[in-house]
Structure formats: structure tokens, C-alpha cells
């Protein structure tokens, strides 16, 4: 009987609709089919969830636990080449190839000391104290510097003899070698005593060469020389000017300023390593010279320590990743670096006035980043708490029963559970977790609170006074009706968000791709949980309310006559504001003109800002200003301005003997490039060594492979060539006295000059790559020979080159997907375009204000802008959908849309801002960019959604859906299904008044009939 009346009511509604003159187009029929199906589904879904809330809550928790199992595959990825470079790029391939074939054997710690003049005895004593303090650092099982350092061969010699020779005005550089070898090989004088005198040096000089080509191996019997080499002690590799005095405290404490200046301005042989050293390269700042060109004053000096990576630990799989770089390290080395940081921090605080110390280690970036995440995490928790208070205030009513504490707590649980699902499913799919994924909780929190406010707003619109005016419908029936109205809206916004991030997942940047996939999974989880988990808890909370139980202690229950809600708590002040104040003045001609003028003015201003927006990124921006690493990098940039990123030219399977003419030209061109600061050229040293000692004529005359192997074998164990030996990888074992086995790979270190921004480093990178590509060397037969340039700076520079185009591509595709999704769900081209205009205006405003707020286009801001599209579309689409479901004049429909959904949109946007507001004090680039961009998005998104769009809709708004009713229209039917009266209501619901004498179960109360979209209209 009742269903028949409902069906007749539906038919009557169709007749009423047709009588209004609305003829439905094909698009409108599609709209009715889509939205009608969705509303029917959501009604039934809300009804069944509210009927069995505990079952659905249990299923949600079980599903979360199952998804959480995917976290066993959780992969943290910090390596920049794995995040910000396309997987198929040459740099990514080359980097991985280098990791596999030539892993780094060392990690570096660095100190810069600044003073008015570092060439001072007091500074030298201070450096000695630092050196000895570092030697005494102790970690696991009392391991010290000598146990973990990277070691190089050491050759001791008589320092006093060396110094006497150095001070002699007639001394020449070859006498330094004479002194060096005269001491080092003093135990073997009987084999060739003349070698250690000036005769040996003279003999070398008569060959017309530089002393760098002098080789005692050619004067001593080979077995004797190699025996000496094989039995040499080794020492820790430390770049420190005090090695010139062998770190002898007595001598260092007796130094005079004149002697220090003389030492630094003389080409010397290290008394420890036997190599030519020139410590003027480690001086920086404002450098003064005397009339002879000697450096007499410098403002800074650089010190370095090199820690060996325990390769046996790495091969055994016991290495640990550096959390800052993602590169492998051993546990002992990382622990030593931690103690080094503590030591330098302590020394820094003890520096005398005018002297400063700046330092960095391999783990500095990771430690600082992790510290920032912890600090920002505390701010996130504080932001959650503040938002919890705000949501509690806006969600419930100001009395002890109608506060929605339970619903609010479980709304936060929805965000946490969606986070677990997102990371669990993503990890199960082997998606990596990058640093920017740390902002995902903020995103899920913001989107989740929007959907919650929409659901609650629809409930409040339908059933505003549950205590003072009890409703005869069951909670499941009412929940079904509320979700029927809210479901379409949150579906529209969720699908547009998923579409935006789904397109973002098509990016070529793995880090952005990973984030977008995680975000899309999280948003889908939010949507499902809001319509299930939250609805179930809301139904339970509503049962508590109607049983008059205390919101803070449900054990306390009030009697009906003892608890009557105060009138103050029963008023919706947000709706009163929108209905009686905001809408009253917004739609006046003056206000409309002002809104359009302000919108166009902001648009013009931000278009200018977009034209000035720079594409720039500097890794130092990730660091807080006061951190030791940021201070070090800033000081290095100031004191050593010409020094840029280090790099290598990697030559694999090159046929060197067949390529000497091309190698000669390449080395000349590379060394002379304006983009290169320095180049460690093994070829020039070898050419001079071979030509001087063996009479070869490289490159004019070809060198037989057998002679090349013999000469190179001797060269790499000579004083001139030993520094290059570590950069050669050969097939098989190679030791002193052996011919060089086939060369598999050679690394040639270089350093870029300092570049100022992408307008310099991108052309510089391409110029260097072009030089290497055009070298035209000959490779070994049947090999995969290749040659490439590689630098730590390439990961930033290549992403700089890609990021602008990738940003525009992602924004354009995301906008297209969002508009297509809105079009199919709203089924109205004009509304789709108007919502799209709001989104486009917001994105333009974001780009312009990024310039005014000192932000640039980079990897982080690119992600934030993609997020912005997904967030700002929510504000406009909610208002657009509400406008389409009301009929009447454009003004009245716009007012009704603001009244019905405006408070939810405002609360959602404002609560999102509250959750991120504390990040304004963050010192992390990722969080600061996120805060600034999302503040702009929320501000302009709310402006366009709640002010500009309603004004435009009141002027250009499309016709309503054919099933829409006038604002406040309610149709009543008698028992025969005929219309008997119409009266004002504030929702799309209609009521069927049952007055049949045969059915008095309702006592004459009006029963709700589902929206006409529940029925299949006759015209469809």
C-alpha cells in the first residue's frame, strides 16, 4: 500500500516537473540516470551501515589490518637520482652503473676555519688541537680515527733536512724529491747511493722534464723498489696543512708567521704521503699577496677527514643506509660521524673572538632532516589538537548531550586509518616512500574533514532539532536520507581529487609519481571510510544523543524532563551568517561589481607574478638557517666562490693506445672549458712520465699495447702516478712491478666552477656532456664501452631542466581530468566551465603569490601545486552541485546553495588551514612550501567558491536539474496520491502525508518520501 503511494507520488512529481516547462535534454537524462543511481545507492548504503554499525566498523578495521600487512614491503628512498630523475634517463642509468661497478670507498667530513688571517701561529696551534681531538674520538669497542679512516701509503723523511733545503735560496723543486727519497730509502743506500744525491736529480733534469716525472723505480732494481712499496706503512687520509710538519707538536708550537707564509707559498712534497701538495688551494676568502705574488693573508682554511666504508660489511649485507642521502655506509663510520658532529659543535662554542669554525659530515643532511621531521611532527600533532577543538566546536552544539565528541574522534581515526591503508597498499605494490610523502597526512586530513562536514551539514539540514523535535523515523532511515544528499557531493569531489592525482601519477619523475599514487589511494580510502566507518560511528553517536547521554561520559543519562537543550545551542550560527548577513549583501549590484573587480584585479596581479616566477632549486633550502650544515654551505659559498660541484669523466672499455690523439684533444678541450674549475688529468701526467723516462712520443707516435701496459704499470706506482691508481679498475690483480692488466674503467675527477642558478648550470652541464660525447674515442672490441660525465650536481640540474615542463604538463592534464570528471557528474557544460574557471583562477593566483612570497618552481612546489588542484576543486564543485539542485531565480538559487552547503565548505577550508597553520614556523623547505601554497589555495579557493562563483552563478548560472525544486518547496499528497498543498521547507526532500483511515500508525505525521530522483521519471 505504502510503496504504491510512493510510486504514485513519483509519477505525480514527474507531472509536476513537466508542468513547470522543463524539457530534459539528453545530457539532463544522463545526469538524472547517474545522480539517481548514485542517490539510490547512497540511501541504501547509509541505511544498512546505520543498521549494522558494529559490523561495518569491524570490517573497516579488519580491512585496514589486511592493508597494513603491505607495510612489510615499506621502502624508504632518499637517493635523489631515484626520486627526481626519470627512470630511463642516462643519468639514472649511469648512476646505478657506477654504484654497481665503482662504489664509493670513502665518506668525507669537512671543516672551514675563518679568521682575519688564518696564516697565523695561533690558528696553526688551534688546527693541531682539532686534529688531536679528532684522533681521540672513540666509538664501538674503543675504535678510533686510526681504525676507521681511509688509509694511504706513508713515506717518512727527515723533516729538518727537508726544511733546511727548502729555506735555501738556491734550492729548486727537484731537491725536494732528493731530500724525500734520501730519507725514505736511506736503508738501501748500498744499492744506488748516487740516486739520492743531486746526480740523480741532475740526470732527471737533463732529460728536460719536470721533477714530477722522476721515478726512483727506474734507478733501483724493480724487486727492491717494489719491496719498499709493499712494506710501506700507511696513514689516515686527512687534508690538513700541519702534515707539512708531520703534526709534530713541538715544531707547530714554535712556528713563526714568516715561516708559515713561506711554507704555504712553496711547492712542497708531503712528508707523509710523498705527493706534491699545494695548500694555497685550501685558503679562501679575501686573499692578499705581497709584491712577489706570495699569499700573506687569507680569511679561511679548509680541513678534511676521509672515513673508509667497510666494504666487507657492505658485501655481507650489514651496511646501513645514510638516511640523508640513501647511500650505504657502515655502522661504525656513521657512529664516528655522530661523535665528530658533537666534537665540532663543542669546539665551535669555544672559539675565541674573531675566529669561527664551520663543519659538515656525510650524515649531516640526514640528521638535520630527521630532526626537522620530528620538530614538524610535533607541530603537526599540535595542529591536529587545535583542529580537533575547532571541529568539536563546529560539529556539535553547545550542550552536554549534542556535542559530537565521539564523531570527531572517529573522524580523526578516518584520517589515520586512510594513512595506513594508503601506505600499506602502496608498499604492497612496491612503491617507494620519498621525503615529500611526509606531507601526505596533512592532505588526507584536509580532504577528510571536508567530506565529514558535508555529511554532517546534510544531516543538520534535514534533521536540525533531534531533541526538541523528535523524529519518528529510525536513525538508519534518516542516515540513508542524509547520505543520499551528501553522497553525490563527496563522490564528485573525491573522484575529481583521484583524477587529479591519477594524472599526476603519469609523471616521469618517480618521486612525484609515488606521491600521487599514495595520495590517490589515500583519497579513495578517505571516501570509503567516510561513507562507512564515520557514518557508522555517527549513527551510534546519534543514538547516544537521542538517549540523552552525556557526550563526555556516556554512562550519564538525563531524563527527558531533566534535560532540555538551551535555545542558544539549537541555533546554527554559520547558517544564520550565510542566510541573514552574507547572502543578503553579497548579491547586491554593488557587491557583485566589487567582487568581479577584485577577482579580476587579483588575476591581473598574479598573472604578472607568474611571469616573474623563477625556476630555481638549491638543496640548502631544505636546511634550517641555524643548522651547522647550512652555515657551512653558506660560508663555503662565500669563502670559496669559484668552486662548484665535483664530478667524474667515466671511461669504460676504452682502447687507450688507439685513442691517444683523440684523448689529447679531449683533455685539452675539457681542461680549457669555461665550465670547469679544475681537472685531475692522469693522461697529461702519464704522457710526461712516459715521454721523459721511456723516450716515447705520445701522442704523435702510436704506443704499442704491450709498452702501454708496461709503462702504465710503472707509472701508477711512481710518485707522479700513484695518486691516479685508485681511479683505475682493471681486470684481475695488479701490484707493483706488474704490467697493467686490461683497463676496464677509468675515472677522471673534475670540479665545476660555481654556477648562479639554472640559467648557468643547465647550459654548463650540457656543454660538459657534449665535450664527453664528442670525444670520439675508440672502444675495445666486443665490449659495451662508453664514456660519460657524471656529477653530484646533475641530479638537481637535470630535474631543474625537467620540472617546469613537467609542472605545466601535470597541471594541464590534472585540470583536464578534473573538468571531464565534473562534466560527467554534474552533466552541465556551463557549470563545468564555471567551476573550471574557479580552479584555473585559483591556480594562477597560487603561481603569482608564490613569486610574491619568495617561492620558486622546484620539485617540492610542483607537488604542492598538483595538490592544490585536487583541493581547490572541492570548494567550487560543492557550490556548483548545490546550485544545480535548487530551482527558482538565479539569485535565490545561489543564496540557497550558500545556505545549504556554504557552512560545510567554509568549515572544511578553515579547518584545513588550522591544521597546517603551525607549520608557518617550520624550518623545512618541504613544510614551509606546503604551508605557503596551501594557505594561498585555501584562501583563494574559498574566495572563488563562496564569493566569486555564487556571484557569477547569480548572473550566468545554468538552469537547474529538471528534478530540482524551488527553494523551500514541499509537496504533500493525499492518500490517492494527488497534490493537496505546497509549503516551504529547506531541503530537497518531499513528504508524503498519510491520512488514510486504514493506517493510523503514524498518527498523522508526515513521512518522508525519497527525492524524486529515487524514481525513474516517466520522461527518462
Automatic annotation (TrEMBL):
Residues 992-1011 are annotated as: Disordered. GO terms for cellular component: membrane. The chain crosses the membrane at residues 54-76, 378-401, 413-433, 439-462, 483-505, 517-540, 585-608, 807-826, 833-853, 865-884, 904-921, 933-956. It comes from the Eukaryota. Residues 376-540 form the SSD domain. Keywords: Membrane, Transmembrane, Transmembrane helix. Pfam families: Sterol-sensing. Belongs to the patched family. This is Niemann-Pick C1 protein. The lineage of its organism: Eukaryota, Metazoa, Ecdysozoa, Arthropoda, Hexapoda.
